[in-house]
Task: inverse folding
DNA sequence: GTCGGCCTACTCGGATAGTACGTGTCCGAGTGAAACGGG
DNA sequence: CCCGTTTCACTCGGACACGTACTATCCGAGTAGGCCGAC
């Protein structure tokens, strides 16, 4: 899985704590974790294309959440960075070669590939679990385990100039 | 996800239909789907390292299932090809940089990363689903949808010389 | 006819190139704010 | 003092190198079966 996913989720969390009215430039979000600013910008662009964050140019510009954290799921973020296509790609090899009309399924034409079906079932379970967790849920969990985290984020982004 | 996973599962299914007493060379398993023989061999080697199949050299050698199809799960095959490490790697960026002691968790030292926890929860659901499906289950599904498939496989591997 | 030894062809196994994707970087277009000058 | 214009620094957005891992391939070590000859 793409490493940018981790960066994106952390940044969404930070944006959630900072509020929707506040725009934060990619450089500052990157500096918070000492990450390459340009590459972080790339990930945020992906989030913007997916409609998770909105971007504004110019001075005092940057990124902010496009909707409340409750409406943003982990699935949304992962799909924005990794893409929506399923990880297991069935290339239908059962229809190739001397196998005649394949093994996993007879291949009268439209019978589904049993392997593909099983893999998709597992992947749907994964997606369902991701979709059930919102950014707000994660923020709540963090607030419970370490109540000072949100305030520390707000302070750091409020003060530091670089 | 690795394309070799698809090849490996299909081959396991074929080996299951052919029975445990019969050894099939990688070249023949590849020819069945018109796939590169040497690369198919590589995937089967991975299965052998994981203890899913056993390999024998020399004439009339090849690969065969190391245990009954009921005891081989999709999770086993995927882990053998893709590796057992989780897809989402938490690099603990929350502990880096001017963030002081991070965002997702305070970082007194041992509080778990909330993002990592959520991602792992989803991944465990995926693994659980894969582990619940055995090669025998898939074979049964195929037999139900197209009863002739198993017999066709047996015939092809029994007759063809190349 | 039977047994032992040799030979050969077959198969796996790891080491070796080629290629696509993820990682990281850079510079230009656009924009909004702030400064400045005039009314 | 207020307003319009100009300037300018700031930010995003896409285009450009680099490295790693997947894809694909080749050749050598080992082995088991078959063949040959001797007894």
Result:
């Amino acid at each position: 899985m793409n490493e940018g996913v981790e960066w994106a989720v952390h940044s969404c969390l930070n944006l959630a704590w900072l509020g929707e009215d506040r725009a934060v430039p990619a450089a500052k979000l990157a500096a918070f974790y000492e990450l390459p600013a340009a590459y972080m910008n790339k990930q945020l662009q992906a989030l913007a294309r997916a409609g998770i964050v909105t971007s504004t140019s110019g001075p005092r510009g940057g990124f902010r959440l496009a909707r409340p954290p409750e409406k943003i799921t982990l699935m949304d973020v992962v799909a924005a960075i990794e893409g929506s296509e399923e990880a297991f790609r069935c290339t239908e090899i059962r229809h190739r070669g001397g196998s005649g009309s394949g093994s996993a399924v007879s291949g009268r034409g439209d019978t589904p590939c049993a392997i593909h079906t099983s893999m998709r079932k597992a992947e749907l379970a994964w997606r369902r679990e991701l979709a059930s967790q919102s950014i707000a849920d994660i923020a709540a969990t963090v607030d419970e385990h370490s109540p000072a985290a949100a305030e520390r984020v707000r302070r750091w982004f409020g003060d530091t100039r670089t």
Q: What stands out?
A: Chain B touches chain A through 64 residues (CB under 8 Å). The helical segments of chain B are 4-18, 26-31, 37-49, 74-82, 114-131, 135-145, 148-159.
